[in-house]
């Protein structure tokens, strides 16, 4: 199988605080992980592509200083929402690509962030 | 630029009916991959199928079948004898093939409601 976990699944925080979301590939090594954001009743929007051991590549319009991504190992990537504001409230989903030739992305269960 | 269009925003069917979800794509790549993912109310995206642009054979997996027609740039998904558990949002997605090019472009999704 190809299992991807995310933690936490739910987070509620006060405006101005930082929130860290972890994405782990449990039974495979993920050379590349992706972070998506999904607003209610909308599609997934790619935020950034994260390769192990290198800096993440951010999509246009995504603030790299706002959304810090670290991919320190082949099984773990983290997304930190810094100084969160209510407009950052969303559903954040990570995915992982197995190996260097596997084209399929396997998705984590997502993290619902609510900033008050 | 790549684009995926799922023209059906919402579909409702009565249990045991067949239903087809449409997907039309645009790409300038000569080789690419097409995907279908299911997103139940829990939020996690479940991988259903990946299809290489080289392979135009239709595929059947249980009650699910996929019709890939390169001539019309379509990759439609049919559920036969629908069940309540099929209720979810279904996303069609496109990815270029080739080393390092695994970013997914998602359609806006089709919400399927199966009524008992």
Q: Could you provide a short overview of the structure?
A:
The complex is a heterodimer of chains A (116) and B (116). Chain A has 116 residues and is an all-beta fold.
Describe what this molecule looks like in 3D.
Chain A is mostly beta strands. Chain A has no helices and 11 strands. Chain A has strands at residues 4-7, 10-13, 19-25, 30-38, 44-51, 57-58, 67-73, 76-81, 90-98, 105-107, 111-115. In chain A, the strands form 2 sheets. In chain A, strands 2, 4, 5, 6, 9, 10 and 11 form a 7-stranded mixed sheet that branches. The mean pLDDT of chain A is 91. Chain B has 116 residues and is an all-beta fold. Chain B has no helices and 12 strands. At the A-B interface, strand 5, strand 9 and strand 10 of A face strand 5 and strand 6 of B.
Architecture blueprint of SSEs:
The complex is a heterodimer of chains A (116) and B (116).
Chain A: E1 4-7, E2 10-13, E3 19-25, E4 30-38, E5 44-51, E6 57-58, E7 67-73, E8 76-81, E9 90-98, E10 105-107, E11 111-115
Parallel strand pairs in A: 2-11
Antiparallel strand pairs in A: 1-3, 3-8, 4-5, 4-9, 5-6, 7-8, 9-10, 9-11
Chain B: E1 3-5, E2 10-14, E3 19-21, E4 24-26, E5 32-39, E6 46-52, E7 59-61, E8 64-69, E9 74-79, E10 88-96, E11 105-106, E12 110-115
Radius of gyration of chain A: 13 Å
Give the overall average pLDDT of chain A.
91
Going by helix content, strand content and strand pairing, the class of chain B is mainly beta
Q: What's the helix-strand series of chain B?
A: EEEEEEEEEEEE
Q: Tally of extended strands of chain A? A: 11
* C-alpha geometry of chain B: globular
Contiguous runs where pLDDT drops below 50 for at least 5 residues of chain B: none
- Percentage beta strand of chain A: over 45%
| Biggest interface, residues from each chain | A-B, 21 and 21 residues
Extended strand count of chain B: 12
The main pleated sheet of chain A reads as: 7 strands, mixed
User: Distance N terminus to C terminus of chain A?
Assistant: 37 Å
The low-pLDDT segments of chain A are none
Q: Based on helices, strands and strand pairing, what is the structural class of chain A?
A: mainly beta
Mean pLDDT over the full residue set of chain B: 92
How large is the count of helical segments of chain B? 0
């Amino acid at each position: 199988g190809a299992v991807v976990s995310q933690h936490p699944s739910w987070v509620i925080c006060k405006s101005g605080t930082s929130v860290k979301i972890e994405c782990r590939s449990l039974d495979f090594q993920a050379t590349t992980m992706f972070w998506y954001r999904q607003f209610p009743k909308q599609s997934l929007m790619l935020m950034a592509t994260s390769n192990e051991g290198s800096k993440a590549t951010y999509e246009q319009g995504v603030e790299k200083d706002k959304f810090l991504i670290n991919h320190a190992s082949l099984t773990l990537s983290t997304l930190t929402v810094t100084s969160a504001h209510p407009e950052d409230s969303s559903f954040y989903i990570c995915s992982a690509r197995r190996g260097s030739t596997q084209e399929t992305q396997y998705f984590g269960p997502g993290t619902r962030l609510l900033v008050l | 630029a790549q684009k995926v269009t799922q023209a059906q925003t919402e579909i409702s069917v009565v249990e045991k009916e067949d239903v087809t979800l449409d997907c039309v794509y645009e790409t300038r790549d000569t080789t690419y991959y097409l995907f279908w993912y299911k997103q139940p109310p829990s939020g996690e995206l479940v991988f259903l199928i990946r299809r290489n642009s080289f392979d135009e054979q239709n595929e059947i997996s249980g009650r699910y079948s996929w019709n890939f027609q390169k001539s019309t740039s379509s990759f439609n998904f049919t559920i036969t004898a629908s069940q309540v558990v099929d209720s979810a949002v279904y996303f069609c997605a496109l990815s270029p093939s080739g080393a390092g090019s695994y970013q997914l472009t998602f359609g806006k999704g089709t919400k399927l409601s199966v009524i008992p």
